[in-house]
Known about the structure:
- The chain has 434 residues and is of the alpha/beta class.
- Helices cover 35% and strands 22% of the residues.
- The strands form five sheets. It has a six-stranded parallel sheet, sandwiched between helices.
Amino acid sequence: xxxxxxxxxxxxxxxxxxxxxxxxxxxxxxxxxxxxxxxxxxxxxxxxxxxxxxxxxxxxxxxxxxxxxxxxxxxxxxxxxxxxxxxxxxxxxxxxxxxxxxxxxxxxxxxxxxxxxxxxxxxxxxxxxxxxxxxxxxxxxxxxxxxxxxxxxxxxxxxxxxxxxxxxxxxxxxxxxxxxxxxxxxxxxxxxxxxxxxxxxxxxxxxxxxxxxxxxxxxxxxxxxxxxxxxxxxxxxxxxxxxxxxxxxxxxxxxxxxxxxxxxxxxxxxxxxxxxxxxxxxxxxxxxxxxxxxxxxxxxxxxxxxxxxxxxxxxxxxxxxxxxxxxxxxxxxxxxxxxxxxxxxxxxxxxxxxxxxxxxxxxxxxxxxxxxxxxxxxxxxxxxxxxxxxxxxxxxxxxxxxxxxxxxxxxxxxxxxxxxxxxxxxxxxxxxxx
Length: 434
């Protein structure tokens, strides 16, 4: 059968989708790029926030609309949405043939084949065996390596532990074998992801194994190894020094701080406070590491003073990239049961203010790059602007700004070129290939 796939949410979900597609290919099925060609469409969902749930529901309904015109089309819904709402989706989505939870991807072939025959399949109870086979859905020069599943941090606002379970590190030998496969397929940039990569190995060996793992991976022929999602209380001097000095490790750290006010951080169960956070940001910046982070605005009980403290911190700290998210109430979380929830209008207003401050920071930093030279990996063409598009080691795919550049000679996807920055287009850098 011909299989179409839609992957929603984070890059960890993308890896899950790629491994499901590999299982389906191994069973003799063909992966196609559009719903119109497909006999069965797999929708791998996210349910982390209200917005993510709504996106998942909208995508399922969109595929269901295609099924109205083609009743023989099979629909399989996988991932966080079925896992979080076990048994509640079958009545709400009668058009869907099969549901699989996040630990049930070993059953994807049975689910797809049942859907292709017009049957039903439901499984939200399993524990997958590890597989390294993947159908890459990223550009050929970079790929994600998911080094752990689940989370044990128990932040009060977060539904992830309830959906994906406690933290579970993958075996080091499995990850190295998977990375060898990716390198052999031409991957040049390897991006390590997990809900929290800094705790890798603690659950299995009692030791933090991120640095040894990343050092080994950096010596396997990759041009770049990038570390995503570093929990702030786990970012010590040794890790900062490793990122700043190790060959082939991107000078880049994604550290979700979530707030600066000590009282808010305590209610979030974040295990940090204002003094620690300020010191950490200074250490990272002093080491020459580009920093991405995220903040939650409007958490229950966030006072006007706490909001102003966060606004002032954003302006002072000049963090390279920061995502600002309005607090989203998630059923089943401790924060959902807290008192002093703020009106949605207040959350929206505060979020807009913080985003405006951070946009100003990024714009100033972009303008200050004029005249510098950077190494850029070419990734595609912006036909509207008539230029090439790429990234430096200080820009992660999809979430950060890009470099738009022109070249008088041809360039090749995935190759690195020296670009002189001549200005900026909003937060994006603009330049000419040297």
